[in-house]
Amino acid sequence: MLRTHNNGELRLANVNQTVTLCGWVQRIRDKGGMIWIDLRDRYGITQLMLEEGKTSKEALDIARSLGREFVISATGPVVERLSKNDKIATGDVEVKIESLSILNPAKLPPFLIEDETDGGDDIRMKYRYLDLRRNPVRANLQLRHQVARFTRQYLDDQSFIEVETPVLIKSTPEGARDFVVPSRMNPGEFYALPQSPQTFKQLLMVSGFDRYYQIVKCFRDEDLRADRQPEFTQIDCEMSFIEQEDILQMFEGLARHLFKQVKGIDLESVPRMTYANAMKYYGSDKPDTRFEMKFVELKGEESDLTSGKDFQVFDSAGLVVGIAAKGCAEYTRKQVDELTDFVKRPQVGAKGLVTVRYNTDGSIKSSVDKFYTEEDLKKWVAAFDAEPGDLLLILSGEGDKVRKQLNELRLEMGSRLGLRNSDNYSCLWVVDFPLLEYGEEENRWFAMHHPFTSPKPEDLGYLESGDFGKIRANAYDLVINGVEVGGGSIRIFQKDLQAKMFEVLGFSDEEAKHQFGFLMDAFEYGAPPHGGLAFGFDRLCSLFGGSDSIRDFIAFPKNNSGRDVMIDSPSAIADAQLNELKIKTTV
Amino acid sequence: MLRTHNNGELRLANVNQTVTLCGWVQRIRDKGGMIWIDLRDRYGITQLMLEEGKTSKEALDIARSLGREFVISATGPVVERLSKNDKIATGDVEVKIESLSILNPAKLPPFLIEDETDGGDDIRMKYRYLDLRRNPVRANLQLRHQVARFTRQYLDDQSFIEVETPVLIKSTPEGARDFVVPSRMNPGEFYALPQSPQTFKQLLMVSGFDRYYQIVKCFRDEDLRADRQPEFTQIDCEMSFIEQEDILQMFEGLARHLFKQVKGIDLESVPRMTYANAMKYYGSDKPDTRFEMKFVELKGEESDLTSGKDFQVFDSAGLVVGIAAKGCAEYTRKQVDELTDFVKRPQVGAKGLVTVRYNTDGSIKSSVDKFYTEEDLKKWVAAFDAEPGDLLLILSGEGDKVRKQLNELRLEMGSRLGLRNSDNYSCLWVVDFPLLEYGEEENRWFAMHHPFTSPKPEDLGYLESGDFGKIRANAYDLVINGVEVGGGSIRIFQKDLQAKMFEVLGFSDEEAKHQFGFLMDAFEYGAPPHGGLAFGFDRLCSLFGGSDSIRDFIAFPKNNSGRDVMIDSPSAIADAQLNELKIKTTV
Asked: Are B177 and A184 in contact (CB under 8 A)?
């Protein structure tokens, strides 16, 4: 090794040892004949010291020629520091330099290599290798490594086998858009990159692998957003001879293990909520349960506390629903106006907001006092189980649409009230998803999860009767802090039922056979009952890291146009390559 | 769980417990009113028992309707067996069935699901999910999981961080052919799939990651052979602030750990051999050192024991070189003829073979007695350090060509003499590879390893003088049993040297900048000395599994045409897909 120690390990016990350190120059101070250099590597920072008159002139000259981020090697004895630095682990000591050499000089970096940098997003992505030098970014990737490591530890202990499934597979029309790869050896034909190893893991169950997992890259050629990347990583799992309950317990165990090992948090038992209740009480299939603030219906299927008072807006609405914001009765007019503006934003889409202040003195004041008496409003307050000081925020409209609007408002209020701290974690299983959803545009049914998801046995009658919208699936999502972290289902393992599903989804027999014939065949040769799930690994890491952006947890991410601006990819390729592949571009 | 136990865990201690087992029917015997069913899963086989008159008629009827590979569930008490089976772990007990149900019937499989199957390669690949049910195939993938697990264990303990590098990268002209992926969002442009994460791991060193690894899929669009797959897996590693010696020791440590954990073998220290000596003594840069049988030169740079005796073949040859096959002096004429035929095969390409029998009685008899006296032959025998009973096998011709021929013959003799047992392991570091090799066809120099490999400092003069063929690289291969399992190098980390290398390789400044500008830039911002290596993971697994074929260690391999015959991929894709990608096929 070019070094005897790294920059994070010297302590008082090393005093008087002669050591050689290597690393990057973080900072240099040259004052009163003394020079101090902070030398950095992945493991920490160690202070080097040179002294006019004592250190050799050669070393002093080299030290004075150094710039930030130079790569150097330094040798000398470890000495105790006079003024200790308790902010760094090596702060009790410094190295009194006897010799110094430059391993590689460095140009001035285009942005500061510090925890707080002056570099904007674009420049940091172009020089990602410099951005990765910064502690917070490197810490994210170290966290990622730990999450992977503890995931494997848990699954290995539970007799899961990691099996690598192929990356060059076959394009399928269902689901998101595939990336494709032209085959040179089979001209005119294409591989596809997997959106997930779904069918392969099911085949592994047919093979009797019993418990499979894989931490695996997946690919989707979709338009990108902040939290989407064209290539992303999944923790992909499958088990045989199980029921839904077994899966929930097994992977609640994984979550518990990760929280304990990675964050030092003892996770309580994860509550469960049906999809129907999640929509009813939170207007979302991934409610943020770090805070309560459940929806209360003033007018709906079970109650009506608003009609017949000449308030047209509510009278014409199918649903009047709201939330109670604790302690917000004192909001100023301006604050309430902000909320009204918030719900009217196109992303939310509400027409207006009705507010009711339940003041601390017990009085009630609403924005619809023209229509409703204090007696009416008292009933509302009672329905909300509100306390003095609460502000009721009420939206109206039609069913799921208004629920989704109120979900946005609820999350906004959670943020305003400081209830969405990224250091707090709240996990939830959402269960009993609908099996199918109707695509109005396409005029056909789509699988909500994927075509291999099993209907609940008690809902099989609806499959026969054609009430497809009523069929619930044995499907489940793990939601943490309002983020869908994982999801899965019990699978269909009977050939006839799978064929029926393809039929419902509008596949002709021929199409089903062409696309998934191998799976249908496999089901004829002894397929066990099985099910599984997949976690979004990038997202899981970002949650543990307390960030909204998965990009921060990917070493070399792509931008919103799918470009890697560092290596400048994608790029044009040579005509010779295109000719060999027997394709041409039509741009 | 649908079962209380798996099929590998019941013991005498479980007797009298009522258990439920699930699995596949391996075998049924119905004899004298008794029915025995061997129930199989990944964990083992358990015997189920039913008895006419005691077991319910319903269960008996179901049992009699079962076929091989049916998936069933069976419940009943565990009882001690009268005649125990010591070949299986559960052989002391059986389960006395009270109820039995069919979870999924199975068609008769197209080949026997037994350790020895009657299925040919093609049918087994088409029904790979059935082939994977067979114990030896499943064991291979379990071994693969273990090798990965212990690799991670070792590298994690050594402070390596696993970092995922991108799969959608940029096509580069150097090296093998890339698979490419058209970009929909950037029409006319393409990603490439990585042949290795080489440049990314070097950038991670520039980022200060210090120790990186990744078990990662790589891709090469090359014509396929038995031991090549278009997608394969590497254990990819890189370290900073190290010299070659550090890498050799670190990864010898990994090899030692794997041999111990996976095979229970204590690996001795791995010897080293220069490339020059490997070629001189074994005619190969990956000698099989499970056996000695080193080359001996009768005529070469240092000696000439053959010239001037009117034997034209030897007189006109630049090199006369042979091996001594222990105890083969007694080979029959037929056996010797076989060897002559062997060396004349087009794959070997020799013109003929000269043999010398050093008989046990001390007499010497050769196929060239016409030209050489016993006195001459005695000198040969002495040069070979041969013992009575040995057979000398001698080839002649020009330099490396004849050495490669003799390498083939040596391996053949090793096999014939039983010296290449796959249960024996011999590891070797081959070091000091040439940096560059000349491509006669292309009329230019190529990097033997890759363009980022560092020349030995003492050979830098040849880079200036233009004696490119003389430059040795800080490059090394790990060879096990004659198979190149891993290889790597110390990298260039200085911008100027890297630019010089690209120049030698015939890159224009512009090309170098276009292809590797980001790396050259990175070298300006403080790149540390670094180096690394990669192991061929599939090959490593096949070695540990005692097989020549990497395919046996890949769950879903492709055939020699790059096809997955199970899922029928690659395949044609829809015109709509091509249109969106702005490409068209020209087949």
From this structure: yes
